[in-house]
Amino acid sequence: MADxxxxxxxxxxxxxxxxxxxxxxxxxxxFYPSSKxxxxxxxxxxxxxxxxxxxxxxxxxxxYADLLSWDQYWHTTLDTSDAPFxxxxxxxxxxxxYNCIDRHLEQYRNKAAFVFVGEPExxxxxxxxxxELYYQVNEMAALLRDFGGLKAGDRVTIxxxxxxxxxxxxxACARLGVIHSVVFxxxxxxxxxxxxxxxxxxxxxxxxxxxxxxxxxxxxEKADIAVKTAKDEKHTIEKVLVWHREPGKYNxxxxxxxxxxxxxEDVLKKYAGQIVEPVxxxxxxxxxxxxxxxxxxxxxxxxxxxxxxxxxxxxxxxYIQDLHPTDVYWCMADIGWITGHSYIVYGPLAxxxxxxxxxxxxxxxxxxxxxxxxxxxxxxxxxxxPTAIRMLRKAGPDEPAxxxxxFKHMTTVGEPIEPEVWKWYHEVVxxxxxxxxxxxxxxxxxxxxxxxxxxxxxxxxxxxxxxxxGIYPVIFDEEGKEVKGGSGKAGNICIRxxxxxxxxxxxxxxxxFVAQYYRKYNKNPKSKDWRDWPYFAGDGAVQAPDGYFRIxxxxxxxxxxxxxxxxxxxxxxxxxxxNEVAEAAVIPVVDEVKGRVPEVYVSLKPGQHNATAVSEAxxxxxxxxxxxxxRPKKVHVVPDMPKTRSGKIMRRxxxxxxxxxxxxxxxxxxxxxxxxxxxxxxxGNRPVxxxxxxxxxxxxxxxx
Length: 704
Ligand code: PRX
Fold this sequence. Notes:
Layout: H1 2-13, H2 18-22, H3 35-40, H4 48-51, H5 62-65, E1 76-79, E2 87-90, E3 93-94, H6 96-100, H7 105-108, E4 112-117, E5 126-129, H8 130-147, E6 155-160, H9 165-176, E7 179-184, H10 189-199, E8 203-207, E9 209-212, E10 215-218, H11 220-232, E11 239-243, E12 261-263, H12 264-268, E13 281-282, E14 286-292, E15 300-305, H13 307-319, E16 328-331, H14 338-350, E17 354-358, H15 369-377, E18 381-384, H16 386-395, E19 409-413, H17 419-429, E20 435-439, E21 473-476, E22 491-495, E23 505-506, H18 510-517, E24 535-543, E25 549-554, E26 558-561, E27 564-567, H19 568-575, E28 581-591, E29 595-604, H20 611-625, E30 635-638, H21 651-658, H22 672-683, H23 695-699
Parallel strand pairs: 4-17, 6-7, 6-8, 7-14, 8-11, 11-12, 16-17, 16-18, 18-19, 19-20, 29-30
Antiparallel strand pairs: 1-2, 3-13, 4-5, 9-10, 14-15, 15-23, 21-22, 22-24, 24-25, 26-27, 28-29
């Protein structure tokens, strides 16, 4: 622990300078892992950083690939010949389903792979052993191949909540080399249809319904909308495969469409007991697509490969989650997001762990639910988001103490966590015993980029920590000049090197991939040298003198709502589908629980005056086209938008107004009077706050 002492001394020397105040930086005290945790941890040797240092790159990442079983060993660790489309472990072949199931059978056949906890509390948890998973995945693979007509390289859209049939379907696809594209269950049918069309999925896998906040949700109805939306996009979904939430019972009011819709339960009978040999896939074959929001209206399909992705999630699950086969691990995320793919399904299963699946909302029927689940299942590793922590803290600050569970390790992911929320997580949820990792990463990055190494680095509330082994971040200013660590200045965090978990491309759009992630800081577009291609993450960050990174939030038009990315352009285009709306602007507002929530400003077409009806229609349009998670906090119908002389809507000014900030100098705008009108309308006589406004909100809508 020598490094820890050095860091502690450094911390005491740290002075808060002006620039740090500018980003509201306050150095927090370190917290240390217990000797009990260190004594059992996988990664305790600080030499790992040397092992993964630049001089050993890229060969250092052999260590992660060696956690997997390869049908054919690779010949080139990193192939940069088509930069920046990196190929990891080139020449290798493997199957992800084999790596997550078959190879564990000999040793762990009767161990639970998944324990499913449905939302209704009166139904006991369901354990699925590796042996059982093997059977169910094989049967589903046989169905997808022989009934679905699917083969390696085809895409399948899966629109499902967190139930065992979701990872079963994903792993069945992986067994065949079919590329799955899971759409978050809470997204609307329309959002699902757009994604199915973009990926060219001929098969949609869905479910009749599921439990959410105490009620059965009709989910199948979304499939019908998805098929129609895809058709409008000139794409045909030929088959809709419908799982049952409860065997033998159809939980939807929506009729099945003859010849198009099929119950999996019925068709599966034909494939009972069938075994499908896992198809050895080239390392760089795509494993899945995960759609995420960006700066333009259309979500982009992030394409992840097989060998690189699986190696990276296995390596980071082992070292950062410290996940042993004897642990019971519960990540409370939804499998429909990248966190669920990497750290509920692929990472834990690659390591033969027991992974808990929870269907419902964390506080159903009350804020004690997660802690009852933890006790009953003997969960010892827990993983969730700051939004869930804030929500549980608000609803039941004393609940965790009532239940006799013990976590050795806890994760937070998806948003910056406020130090006081972190401390509640540590003291109350973790009972002061659990180590915490604050993991910074993205849909695009496949796995963690920054986090403390749990048995090696001390924790600092509110800071993600140093980079992971083999990840070399840098902070650049807008001109590409490096912002030095310890300078207290913020900038754009980039990763200088490729890593195996990095996504391969935006599905079907190589140009957009290069433009969005590399063009900004690329030194030479023809270069085959990875050093010329820093990855632009789209987040603002500051690096403290101890090397820890504090992530400040998005620097683009993306709003992080409860840890979920929403593109403001997507919301704005939904608003514009309302007939009366002439112009729309969406901005982030600070929210006590969800971090940020969207607020909408619309101006109406001439002759339109019914503000109440328009507000309602706008909210409906957003829910319909994206989903309830995007529901705006408020819709403001304004006389006109604040605009520059060239006609650009000044979203920065609207964000300032909604967040009770000073609007700054608006005299150069084309219509400064409108700003004052809107300000009075929204802020009224409430005091203007200029302190403690988060950086992403302050900078939102800036010209860049
Ligand atoms: O802004 C960062 C924030 O979430 C974004 C990525 O969102 P998504 O692709 O949906 O993936 C979420 C789960 C990995 C990032 O650009 N973010 C993620 N983790 C953190 C974070 N912000 C602060 N601290 C984190 N630990």
